[in-house]
């Protein structure tokens, strides 16, 4: 018996403007976890990286993503960058802007036209690119998209964006956008089993004008009346621990409908820790980088979880996913009452500020030598940057703040008066001790085996003292 591997080449090709792509693409939203955004269990990093690399091996050359595709531990853009950069010449990456997600994963107010540049720049930084191949404006219920689309057209003229598309629109919005700048793609729901005159008219217009129609998952995809009855009753559609069916969620918000009905408290999802989002809005005191948002997944058939609002967030604890092995972690908070991924009545420690001499040299040390991930690097109006790094696991992140003035510069490398100020936990001391030595990390002592675990003190590039610690037991 022989088997044949079917690749994306078999789907045929189409042009996104002047960029040829196979008609079967990859939507990146579910790379970050078992369910959309901060719902479900965060994905295993290596598995997500393998999915991306395998997709390209199978002929996929069109990926749809967004800066607001992030779970408690994973960012879709960061995964794409890590797995695929330097990017193949024929790979087209499409992103969406307009929606907005807060640091903690909740949905905020949609972007104003003057904020869209921040959305575009956020995607550029996370993907490590100097321009974006295709940017969709995700309509957020506004009657007219002219002002928002005009702002993106200016970014296209400036060279930050190559092609423009629109998402979650009606036929009148397509005509409105085409009067401002070329539209190469429209990304909307479409389902053969759910008649919609607007959708049919939009499809006809796209065909008439030679515009690519990227289909978002729209109607039922099988399952029969039993599932429909369960959905109407608001019951969960899978057993605990069962694999979630990829069908539509009745609690998700459609752009043309009102806010979602409240979910039963049992089904509410916890909020992710602020330090572990893929990107987000600056905190209330004004610190932070550009705004980000949320929206739909695309490329072939994808998810659409709608604009402002989003599912309710509750106080029910969640099962903490097992830590990724092979990566040191800051001490994890495991008490259900104080877990940072839970919207708990008690506060949690999200970030710790570390004063540094230079942003880029600090980023290189913490990402290359210690294996941290770059969570965010965003400009601030005063010329400084909001830079957050964190270990690849639950816990507190580091806010790298460039020293200003003599007093702050005097604190660089000595924030705790010569004492050990930071504790990096690992599940394999020997492995990580050897890896860090090979990366040039300076250890101030030989490894010790104490009743509480294996430990050795090291210093970062500025001289701050850390413990590398594998707890006993």
Radius of gyration: 23 Å
Number of distinct helices: 10
Q: Which regions have little confidence, pLDDT < 50, spanning 5+ residues?
A: 218-345
Q: Element order, helices and strands?
A: EEEHEHEHEHEHEHEHEEHEEEHEHEEEE
| Largest beta sheet: strand ordering | 3-4-5-6-7-8-9
- Helical content class: 10-25%
Derived from helix and strand composition plus strand pairing, the structural class reads alpha/beta
- State the distance separating the first and last CA atoms: 50 Å
Strand share of the residues?
15-25%
Largest sheet: 7 strands, parallel
Overall pLDDT score: 75
Shape: elongated
Number of E strands: 19
Describe the fold and architecture.
The strands form 4 sheets. A 7-stranded parallel sheet has the order 3-4-5-6-7-8-9. Strands 10, 15, 16, 17, 18 and 19 form a 6-stranded mixed sheet that branches. It has helices at 45-57, 76-84, 116-127, 146-157, 171-178, 197-209, 224-233, 359-369, 405-411, 429-438, and strands spanning 13-16, 19-22, 26-27, 62-65, 92-97, 132-138, 161-167, 185-190, 212-217, 329-330, 351-356, 373-379, 385-390, 397-402, 420-425, 442-443, 448-450, 453-459, 465-471. It contains 10 helices and 19 strands. The longest helix is centred in the N-terminal third of the chain and has 13 residues, at 45-57. It has 473 residues and is α/β, with parallel strands linked by helices. The radius of gyration is 23 Å and the shape is elongated.
Short description:
22% of the residues lie in helices and 21% in strands. The protein has 473 residues and is α/β, with parallel strands linked by helices. It has a 7-stranded parallel sheet with strand order 3-4-5-6-7-8-9.
